[in-house]
Description:
Ferritin, disordered N terminus, DUF305 domain-containing protein
Amino acid sequence: MRPPTTRITAVLLATATALVLSACGAGADAGPPAAEQVERSAGMPDEANDTDVHFLGMMVPHHQQAIDMSETLLADPRVDPAVRDLAERIRDGQQAENDRMNAWAGEWGQQEAMEYHSHHLANGMFNPTVLGNFAQLEGEELQTRFLKLMHFHHAEVIAMTQDEVDNGGYPPLTDLAARMIEVQTAEMAEMEELLGYVPSG
């Protein structure tokens, strides 16, 4: 797990991530660098803050990309059972988390913020070209690429997730973020074991 980061550090990390993705051909758009001030609604809990809303808006599309990548892998019947099991857990776990986060956003009246962030590629997300090339692969080549891409996808979002743990105000969401870090860190170790090495990005 990465050490806690301040918002300034998170901005620097997001900038560095954008450069890394550009260099490796992922072509991500870093999007807004920090949590913007949001309009509060009657349904928003008193303890919820801008970091919480920013996290919901950025994490839901990030999760959705992992869900879609997992579905692509699972559509190939030749995938190794161990990799298939991992992809099923990623898909099901992140879908459940998205359902919960979308429900909070709806209750809080933050549909506009969610729509705003839904178009951003950040925190390790991949552009359509990368995903299109991934979808053309089959069998062992597909599963190897899945493990490498998903490892990067997980690793790059942990700083943002830690920022929610450190600076979010809504305890159920900060607890969920802490659990995400635990699960995704464990899944990264599992990917490394399946690959037989630690991907370099």
